Amino acid sequence: MAARTESWEVKVASAKDWERWMAFVSTVQEEFHGIDLSGDAKYRAVIEKNMKRSTAIYVEDDATHEILGAMTYSPHSLHVGWLAVGPGHRRKGIGTALVRYMFAVLPKNVSLSVKTFLETDRPGKAAHAFYKSLGFTPREILEDSNMENAGHPFHLFVKG
User: Fold this and answer.
1) Of 154, 158, 111, 124, which Cα lies nearest the Cα of 139?
2) What is the distance in angstroms between the CA of the first residue and the CA of the last residue of the chain?
């Protein structure tokens, strides 16, 4: 299934997209506290699960088929699991298209959440502005209990 949102076509990832997804992840992992996401077994298992349930989505370059931005979300816990847009492709509507796709497929008038960087983290200011522009409101700052992210607090944002 593919959906055009704004000027970007959002596509649902499947197992055939695995290698391209992991290649994309390697281009953005520095933004995630330098954690080797593509080598992290827990991250890989989460992506595999999301691909199987059609909740891993992406936008690609029409000519090269390179993934420019990607996201996972949970229709059960109603949250953005992971979202990234590649360097050089930011501020072009790709992230907005991904989140709006999620809005379109989830039930209306539900409360959605996302954990994102602190505003003082290098990518934090842009992440805060992005989620606020989509109607999310900052809530509390929490400590990440994930072993790979231990010591990296995050800001919880909620919409609805």
Assistant:
1) 158
2) 26
Residue pair 119/135 in contact by the 8 Å Cβ criterion: no
User: Is pLDDT at 3 greater than 50 in this prediction?
Assistant: yes
Helices (H), the chain: 18-28, 41-52, 94-105, 124-133
Give 70-78 contacts, CB < 8 A, sequence gap 24+. 70/13, 70/21, 70/24, 70/25, 70/98, 71/95, 71/98, 71/99, 71/102, 72/46, 72/47, 73/102, 73/106, 75/105, 75/106, 78/106, 78/110, 78/111, 78/112, 78/113
Query: Which tops the pLDDT comparison, 56 or 7?
Result: 56
Three-state DSSP at 63 gives: coil
DSSP structure class, residue 20: H
The two three-digit tokens of residue 55, written as one number: 């909740």
Q: pLDDT tens for residues 100-115?
A: 999 999 999 899 999 9
Enter the tokens of residue 66: 């390179």
Question: Quick one: pLDDT at residue 119?
Answer: 87
d(CA 71, CA 96): 11
The total of other beta-carbon atoms located within 10 Å of residue 108's CB is 7
Closest-CA residue to 155 (of 122, 129, 124, 116): 116
